[in-house]
Amino acid sequence: MIIGLSFVVMAGTLTNMLGDYLFEQRIRQDRAGLEKWAVQAAPALHAADTRELSRMLTQAGNELGGRVLLLDSDGKVQSDSFMEMNGMRLKNREVASILVQGRSADYGIHSLDGRTVDTPGALALGRDTEGWVSMGTAGIVHASQVIGVMVLVSSVNEMMTNLYVLQDNMVIIFVAVATAAILTGMVFSGILTNPMAELTRGIQRMGKGDFSARVPEKGSGEIKHMAQAFNSMSEKLESFDQSRNQFVSNASHELKTPLSTMKIMIESLIYQPDMEEALRTEFLGDVNKEIDRLSAIVSDLLTLVQADVHTMKLNRERMSLAAVVKEAAHRLQPLVQQRQQQVMLSIEDSCDMYADRSKLEQVAYNIMENAVKYTQQGGEIHVSLTRSGKDAAFVVKDNGPGISKDALAHVYERFYRVDKARAREAGGTGLGLSIVHQLVTLHSGTIRAESEEGKGTTFIIELPLHKG
Ligand SMILES: Nc1ncnc2c1ncn2[C@@H]1O[C@H](COP(=O)(O)OP(=O)(O)OP(=O)(O)O)[C@@H](O)[C@H]1O
Ligand SMILES: [Mg+2]
Question: What integer pLDDT is reported at residue 116 of this predicted model?
Answer without folding.
Answer: 45
